[in-house]
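Form P-L/3: holo structure prediction, ligand pyridoxal-5'-phosphate.
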Amino acid sequence: MTIDLPLARPDLTWAVTTNDNAKSAEERDAILADPGFGNHFTDHMVDVCWSARGGWHRPRVSPYGPIPLDPAAAVLHYAQEVFEGMKAYRHGDGSIWTFRPYENAARMQRSARRMALPELPSDYFIDSLKQLIAVDGAWVPSADGTSLYLRPFMFAKEAFLGVRPAQKVGYYVIASPAGAYFTGGVQPVNIWLSTDYARAGKGGTGAAKTGGNYASSLLPQAEAYEKGCQQVLFLDEGEYLEELGGMNIVLVRRDGTLVTPESDTILEGITRDSILQLASDRGHTVERRRVTITEWRDGVASSEIVGAFACGTAAVVVPIGRLLAEDFEIVHSGPAADELALSLRAELTGIQYGRVEDRHGWMQRLDA
Ligand SMILES: *Cc1c(COP(=O)(O)O)cnc(C)c1O
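OUTPUT (holo model):
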């Protein structure tokens, strides 16, 4: 069945082809009862083409499935790719919402610019999410802490081995139901300090949400696991705190001041920005500046720094219990910083699930 729905721009319409092999309500409910993270996908996907000649065209919602790709497609050789990560939340009245999607749209445009990909207009971006929710809304779970993870992405699909920006690109959105990240309470994580490997360098792609940054983080991440840590912290110039490779970091001072690294080699998280806004609303001072690993070490030794937390869409906010390095470790023991992190986490998730007033106008409805 193919039906046409209007897109934000009147000259483009969405062609919607529903999936004849969609999961039954029973199969879907069984998955939603214990989705894990990134294991299961909904029945449909969004697919929009771009070419240097024709711009954005052929917006489609189709059955979820493999993407036909020429073996010479540029992304497979030169990694010309960007992505986003966000969540759809079901509110108590059944309605479906997402959090600050215009920020994700703008960040995808910045990432695309850096990777020489075309910039998808924000209204297309938001529309693509709404189109997917229109057919797959039943996949948004309703249990506490669960959500439908939305993964917009774009890559170079032109078949050409010469090195230049591709003239054919595809934009897609897939969705994957996500369980509550932490069952039985949020546990502090241990972090490994990577000194042999860097995530990004000045003028590089650290500020873009692009797959290559993740590819280069996998080896240090494996090293972290070997050391008994769940995450890895990267430094800039062997000295300045950057981020965890998928989550941003915030230090907590004794007086409640929050300190977070500022650098053009960091991916600017929307979770971090929101948490810092909520903290600032509560009267906390927020410092965005360069922070050295020595400042953190000395600060903990003198009790000037009482804790740290990591934040990102997937895990929201997680206290950092311990930082392990080759020749030293930093241990946070007092509860104050963890309590602050968890209380900010509760306020943020309260807004996302519609239980706390959205005074900044962050929520956008997707199913209307
Ligand atoms: C996505 C991402 C984050 C977190 O960003 P949010 O918008 O908070 O989800 C942090 N670091 C990297 C490298 C990322 O890709």
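COMMENT: Residues 1-8 have pLDDT under 50 and may be disordered.
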